[in-house]
Amino acid sequence: QLQLVESGGDLVQPGGSLSLSCTASGFSLNNYTIGWFRRTPGKEREGISCLNTRTGSTNYADSVKGRFTISGDNTKNTIYLQMNNLKPEDTAVYYCAADSSSRAFYRCSGYVGGYRARADFDFWGQGTQVTVSS
Asked: 3-state DSSP call for residue 134?
């Protein structure tokens, strides 16, 4: 079965850190674009970061730039989102998505920093909850 599974969500205090994982099963993440998105109640999905696993290119929404880092481990077929200096407004369900299209990184970049009801990716994970609260 081809799927993405996120993990690592938790309750953390403001200023704390978390590392989210996005692991693929049934396919290799080589030559894929991976996007991280988040969603809070009442809002559309926000694009926060993209990674092209072939080129290593990345981008970030202004809301997370300097605090979040996206990276990949080919040996584990996993993409990570390291989140530092977390703020209450980072509270959301976080999703990863993967697409193998040659234009996927370009599309993903268009999602970053924006709120959309729909983002076209081949695969989506089920989401992991991040809560930032004291």
From this structure: coil
Query: Closest Cα to residue 99, out of 115, 79, 116, 123?
Result: 123
State the pLDDT confidence band at 64, using cuts at 50, 70 and 90: very high
Q: Are strands 92-99 and 128-132 parallel, antiparallel or unpaired?
A: antiparallel
Instruction: Give the residue with greater pLDDT, 99 vs 116.
Output: 99
Average pLDDT rounded to a whole number, residues 108-122: 90
Both tokens of residue 9?
């969500």
Helix (H) or strand (E) holding 106: helix 104-111
Residue type at 36? W
* Full DSSP string of 41-76: TTSPEEEEEEEETTT--EEE-TTTTTTEEEEEETTT
